[in-house]
Design goal:
This protein is 45% helix and 21% strand. By secondary structure, it is of the alpha+beta class. Strands 1, 2, 3, 4, 5, 6 and 7 form a seven-stranded mixed beta sheet that branches. The longest helix has 58 residues.
């Protein structure tokens, strides 16, 4: 991801210590039991608003797959057809609820979704944790079939004017990344997949039609 270590200062010193703090989670690991302090959802997400052409192509492609696969992301709610590129988890007052765990579970589900659809998994997945006034940034990347959590990096703070302007600036950088780099990845992978899926379906329909025509002629 452009600007990961360059744009965000780590809370743990040098780049080497940042790497040593990286967490690892298996994408197919289930959540830890039925702990009531753990949820499979996050609080907020930033996503792209698709144009009608892309939306139509993707909807048409999804009509050719099993109903349980008809979503662009890991959500089962009304945002299931939104291309999400940043997820945000807010630390709750409940001391047993860990926002980093919540974010990691959500990102594991995102990676699992990409794998189920056969889509590219190389695009880094940004995430944000808000703890009081402090905003912390994480990057999730797949390395050798594991999902690696890198961070935290300090984005800014709402406790003072400098922290607020720093936060706004870095949020704008993330938005720019989402509407440029991520959008290109989405077009080259998801939209391209949808077009290919539609072409395959049309070719199969034409083959069936030719087969029926031959059968009618022979009879």
């Amino acid at each position: 991801m452009p600007g990961g270590r360059a744009l965000f200062e780590t809370d743990h010193g040098s780049t080497s210590s940042e790497s040593s703090k990286a967490g690892k989670a298996k994408a197919n690991d289930p959540p830890a039991g039925e702990d009531p302090t753990v949820s499979k959802m996050v609080d907020w997400s930033l996503g792209l608003q698709l144009g009608w052409k892309d939306d139509n192509i993707i909807s048409q492609a999804f009509s050719t797959v099993w109903p349980n696969l008809r979503s662009l992301n890991q959500s089962l709610s009304f945002i299931d057809m939104s291309p999400l590129f940043v997820d945000i988890e807010i630390k709750k007052t409940n001391p047993g609820r860990n926002p980093e765990v919540q974010l990691a579970i959500w990102k594991c589900a995102a990676l699992k979704k990409l794998r189920e659809m056969g889509w590219d998994t190389s695009m880094p997945m940004p995430g944000i944790v808000i703890e009081g006034h402090t905003w912390l940034y994480y990057v999730f990347v797949e390395i050798e079939k594991d999902l690696i959590m890198i961070g935290p990096f300090t984005m800014g703070s709402t406790s003072d004017l400098v922290g607020i302007w720093t936060l706004v600036y870095r949020l704008n950088l993330l938005m720019e990344w989402g509407t440029t780099t991520y959008k290109r990845w989405f077009d080259d992978n998801i939209v391209a997949w949808a077009r290919e899926r539609i072409s395959q379906e049309q070719a199969e329909l034409e083959d069936r039609a030719r087969g029926l025509a031959v059968s009618d002629t022979a009879s």
